[in-house]
Write a structure and sequence with these properties.
There is one protein chain. The relative contact order is 0.08. About 40% of the residues lie in helices and about 25% in strands. It has 11 helices and 13 strands. The protein is globular. It has a 6-stranded antiparallel sheet with strand order 8-9-11-10-12-13, with helices on both faces. Strands 4, 5, 6 and 7 form a 4-stranded antiparallel sheet that branches. A 3-stranded antiparallel sheet has the order 1-2-3. A hairpin with a 5-residue loop joins strand 1 (about 25-35) and strand 2 (about 40-50). It has 3 domains: about 5-95; about 100-175, no CATH class; about 180-335, no CATH class. Helix 1 packs across helix 3. The protein is α+β, with helices and mostly antiparallel strands.
Length: about 325
């Protein structure tokens, strides 16, 4: 079995040999990049005759693929070079002014990521803080007819390509994220679908009323539903059977989806936290991790707060009462006047 360093060198050699027969590739390079929820990672990039550089391929992932026996080094090299060329071709190749004029602002969106695990990303771009998370701006690109990719809009990209202030960029990204079509499905239907059944009635799955999976149509970065007013204030309460003021617990199952549970269905949020932590540690890939905290969505105040225990819930409810009391007193004074 070859070592990681030996694999890396053979991979680069294979890709360089293939690049010699390409009309557009001028070189294969290695570098270090920051990955979501992960430490710095070693990556491959390809430079092209037009001066542009491709997105990255992560060498550690390719080495794991090789060790699993899925492909030989030449096969991996050929596949990755093709992917990088497709990604390069998908991004508009033009002079800077022409590129700016063709930017699709509707493709700018927000992705939720964990703040503590992504300090370097937080420092590199504009962002919105939400509890222990941050929402960062990204730009969606179509790589081919079936595959979409996205890039983080760092401050350099924001300044040189998009030419927007932080407020302009984040406001636009938030509006686009709000307008995504979010899908709320009862968890029984989700599980039955994963098992190949058309509905929950086709299989003996225990009923779990008040438990729903929330994501978007692409099922990519769907946890951003948390910052969609329509999803949280209208669609979710309708599913929960409330009158628009329904409260719920939100489990951050990954960056791609949330699990919402009616407040009435949970005896102690600490139990949810234990489950969430266990699943995150044993089943979730690091790049998909969002948080191990449980969130309480207050359907009256439309606020999202961390709620990992009954003590946390008591504090939230106490604050609710204080606010309601202050608002009532204020309303009373206005009536008197």
């Amino acid at each position: 079995m070859i070592t990681y360093e030996e694999f890396k060198q053979e991979l680069i050699n294979s890709m360089n040999d293939m690049a010699n027969n390409s009309d557009i590739v001028t070189g294969i390079h290695t570098g270090i990049t920051n990955r979501t929820n992960m430490n710095e990672a070693e990556c491959l990039t390809v430079s092209f005759v037009d001066g542009n550089v491709s997105p990255t391929a992560y060498i550690e992932e390719l080495y794991a693929e090789y060790l699993d026996g899925y492909a030989t080094i030449p096969e991996i090299a050929r596949t990755e070079l093709r992917k990088l060329e497709e990604a390069h071709n998908a991004f508009p190749q033009m002079d800077l002014d022409s590129f700016k004029s063709r930017i699709d602002t509707a493709a700018i969106f927000l992705q939720l990521i964990n703040r503590e695990r992504n300090e370097s990303i937080r420092e590199s771009c504009a962002h919105i803080a939400i509890a222990d998370l941050i929402a960062v701006p990204k730009y969606r690109m179509q790589i081919n007819n079936e595959v979409f990719g996205s890039i983080l809009i760092t401050r350099d990209i924001q300044t040189n390509l998009f030419q927007m202030t932080d407020d302009e960029l984040l406001s636009l990204a938030r509006a686009n994220t709000q307008n995504q079509n979010y899908i709320i499905t009862d968890i029984g239907s989700v599980v039955s679908g994963m098992m190949g059944y058309s509905s929950a009635e086709d299989i003996d799955i225990p009923k779990t009323p008040g438990v729903f999976v929330i994501t978007n149509e692409s099922m990519t970065f769907g946890a951003s539903a948390m910052i969609s007013q329509k999803c949280m204030q209208q669609d979710l309460p309708a599913k929960l059977g409330g009158n628009g003021n329904s409260s719920a617990y939100l489990i951050p199952s990954s960056v791609h989806e949330l699990i919402a549970i009616s407040e009435d269905a949970v005896a102690d949020p600490a139990e949810l936290k234990d489950i969430c932590h266990s699943v995150n540690e044993s089943c979730l890939e690091p790049k998909d991790y969002l948080s191990s905290n449980i969130y309480y969505y207050d359907g009256i105040r439309h606020k999202i707060e961390i709620c990992n225990s009954l003590e946390d819930l008591e504090q939230i409810k106490s604050y609710q009462l204080q606010q309601n009391s202050a608002q009532s007193q204020s309303a009373g004074r206005k009536v008197t006047i």
